[in-house]
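Recap quiz, item 2
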Amino acid sequence: MSFSKHMRIIAAAAAGVLIMTGCGAKEHDAAFFAMDTYMQVKTYGNEDVSADIEELVRALEDDLSVTDEQSDVYRLDHEGEFGVSDDAYELIGTSLDISRRTDGALDMTVYPVLRAWGFTSSTGYRVPAEDEISSLMEYVDYRRVDISERTVRLPEGFMIDLGATAKGYTGDRICALLAQKDITSAMIDLGGNITALGTKPDGRPWKVAVRCPYEEGYICTLDICNMSVITSGGYERYFEDEDGNEYCHIIDPASGHPVRNGILSVTVAGENGTLCDGLSTAYYVMGAEKAVQKWREYKDHEMIIITDDNYMLVTPGLEDIITVTDDRYTLKVIDDED
Amino acid sequence: MMKTKTWIAIIAVLFAVCAVMSVLIFTRKGHVAKVVLDGRVIRTIDLDAVTEEYSFEVRGEGTNVIRVRPGAICVSDADCPDRICVAHGWESSGGAPVVCAPNKLVITISDEDIDGVTF
């Protein structure tokens, strides 16, 4: 055997070892604060696109932020009419679609009420008086958002906030960027909104844990590929009044009050991150029974509903990829039909 | 010139070393908390090695008090306006990172089995 042949064997063996140990694909980490949360994007491949990812997220935040005075959304809220960016236009359109399919359980116009409860300002949480809430409720109705020819128009007093769908949309946009760069393996974590691109570099599915509401640790894991997994729950942002009543940051657009309906969290999984994000909020608002009905109607996603009587309601599509790690919760598979 | 057998032996040894290394690297069960302030790791704590509860203060754009107990960590007090970090409570391995966005503080806990946490 010639020397070069030996070298070739060694090179092949070394490549084999690298692949086996997962060292072949280089890991690149983007980690930064944006959209009021901590974002981590791990990509695998030769090219490091961390800077492009951060730039994309910052550009989206500049368009979609409800508090930044230069943003498209802020200007729309304060001018009543604005020719918004392509991203803002698309996201407003998609969010309105989700509002329609959830009968208004997701409503971007609930913002004036959310603000009254103090969830968006640094002035602190408060319980508004009932007449204050009912007068603000006059400005809550997604059907009055007029969107046409790149321009969005709001009736007097109306304000919108895309907080319930912006991170899901951002995950979708990051995926599109990675596809352009021929990156096929990535873990995108936008403050707990997870999008898994492809599989892990070693070919196994990504393991994503669903956080235990109110407590440390997690209650189950999902093995996923090419999927977004997004959770809404009242446990992350809430406050208590002097009497110990708890108020969460998700406002029911029908009542103007924080949601309280026996659901601890809703996790929605699917291919479209924007839809998963919007539906997780809408389902949290509508309650378990109606959420199950809506799922039966569409069946274009999977979901996990965790209830305060310790059940995990899971759609049949997740049965094979879920592992329950917390035995205090009983897994119940949702029936396909009524 | 070395014999083919020698080369095979060298390759076999290489394989064995890599296999052992990868097992060591990928199955390490340490639960290490990293305290990251404005992108810089300012403290690394092996939660499995903690025997007694203690706390310390972290000063960046604001102040957070971090409390550590065997296997878990939390932010016990903070001067940020939303106090989401304090409301998060104790966190252990495989849990979500404890985040204080106003003060640019993140506490992550490594868990080799979990790639991401949704919350």
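The longest strand of chain B covers residues 40-46.
Chain B has a mean pLDDT of 87.
End of item.
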